Structures are given as structure tokens and as C-alpha cells.
Amino acid sequence: MTTVSDRTMIRSTTNPDARPRRRWPRPGLIGRYGLLIIAALTAVFPLLWMLSGSLQSLTELLSNQSFLPSDPQWGNYVTAWVQGDLGSYLRNSVIYTGCAVAGILLVASLAGYALARLEFAGKAAFTVVILVVMIIPAPAMFLAQYKLLVSLGLTNSPVGYVLILITSGVPMSALIMRSFFVSQPRDLEEAAALDGAGPLRIFWSVILPLARPGLAAVAVIQGLGAWNEYLMALVIFDDNSLMPIQRGLTAFTSAETPQQPILLAATTIAIIPVIIFYLAAQRHIVQGIGVGAIK
Predict the structure, then answer these.
(1) Which of 50, 163, 192, 225 could join 197 via S-S bond, C-beta 3.0 to 4.6 A?
(2) Mean pLDDT per 10-residue section of the chain, whose length is 295 residues
(3) DSSP codes of every residue in 230-263
(4) CB neighbours of residue 123 within 10 Å
(5) Of 273, 113, 133, 290, nearest to 217 (Cα)?
(6) Crossing angle (nearest 10°) for helices 86-117 and 123-135
(7) What domains are there in the chain, each with its CATH number?
(8) pTM (predicted TM-score)
């Protein structure tokens, strides 16, 4: 009795030139990948244009004769760093964003777990309140937030600014985390409870590790929002040394002395930390998108 492997060996022996047929991709698959490539190039092109413009002189940039710089002006980055005082502003933004994201993850994960697992009076009304808060535009709450900071003595303070960033990001983040916690099976929680673990122990050791994709998605969304925030900083801060990185970019937006290449160089410097953070968390982000698609 010959097996499949024996028949394969006999066939290859009798016809050594026999090769498996090559499968060509289906037209639908080719079109799908073609659209994805076009979308990727559309997203990457502005970054490439910004990088190219940051290495050009003002005359070359305004002439728009070539996409690539004929003589790269690396000194634009030195000028942007020194004249814009980007080192100080960049440090402030890293601190503000890091503290805000950490606070949002802590509060939103606890609130999301409570909305997903706990039963309490007014749970539905509380969820509606969160949705209503998300609808209100952020500038509409500036006056109330500023008065609250004045009453707490936190104006012109990094602590007050970080607290505003946290409270602004918690509502949406709590709902995102709730959706991830709802998708997790209760069997693990019940098993941990039988072993004597309390609610906080179950949350910290069992549930939270399973929600890493959700945490990564929230971190990226709120991290980008906190990094790009500038209007509230103008309202809160009187001291220029406390301003975020966007303040350094405004130093090159004068209409009298246009410095577009320097501005593009400063913008490139400003987005480098965001790119590094995204690349570090991309595996969890993709996993989170997959989990969301399955749900």
C-alpha cells in the first residue's frame, strides 16, 4: 500500500522536471493590494514632502522646481532647534503627554471595567452622561475649566494643565476600554475569585493584561491629542517656558520674514517622538484593530 508521500516520490522520480503549478493571485486580491498601496503612498507623501522641504533653501522651496533638494540644507535643523528653543518645549511636551496618557489609562481602565462588569444604580444614566460630555466641543469648556483651576490655585501650573488633559481624554477612553472588557470571558475572573483573589487583584493581574490592545489604542489616540494640544496651553500658561512644543513652531510663522524651510524642519523634529512611540506600539495597535473588527 503506497502512501501520499510514496506517490509524490514516485512522481518526482519518473518526471524530475515536474514542478508544482504557480498560482497567480486573483484579480480581486491584486486590486485590493493596489488600493492599499495607493492609500499608504497618500499617507506617506506629506511626510516625505515635509522632509524634502526642510532640507531646501527658501528660494528653492518657493520655486517648486524639484521635489528633492539639490543642496541639502542640514543647517535648517540647527536653526530650528536653537531659534525655536525646541529643546525646552520638547521636554515639556514629553512630560505633559506622558503624565496625561498614564493618568488617562489608569482612570479609563478602572471606569471601563466598572461599566463592563459592575452593576450599580444609574449605570445607564452615567453612560449617557459620558456620551454627552464627548459631544461638547473642547473650547466650549475652556471657561469652566479655567475657573476651576483658578479656584484650585493651579493656573500657570503644569499640574493643572495635565489634569485638564486627563479629564478631556477620559470619557472616550472609558468607553473604548469598556468595549474591550465586555469582550473578555468571565471564566478567568470566576476562577481567580475561587482562588481567593479580590476585585482589584482580578482587575490588575487577570483582566488588565488581556486588554493590552485596548490600552495601546487608547494610548495612541490620547497621546496624539495631548501632543497636539495648544489652545488650552495658551489659556492656562502665562510663563512661556511652560508651553508645549507647538509654541516653538509659532516662532517661524511670521509673515514679514517667511521661514518655511525652518518651520518644516521644526515640524519634523516635533513629530519624531510621535513616530517613535507609534512604531513601538504598532503591534498592539494592529492587534487592537483586529479585536475591534472581530467584535
Answers:
(1) 192
(2) 50 52 70 87 88 87 80 89 90 94 92 83 81 80 87 90 92 87 79 77 81 85 89 88 88 72 90 85 63 46
(3) -HHHHHH--SGGG--HHHHHGGG--SSS--HHHH
(4) 12
(5) 290
(6) 150
(7) 85-294 (1.10.3720.10)
(8) 0.80
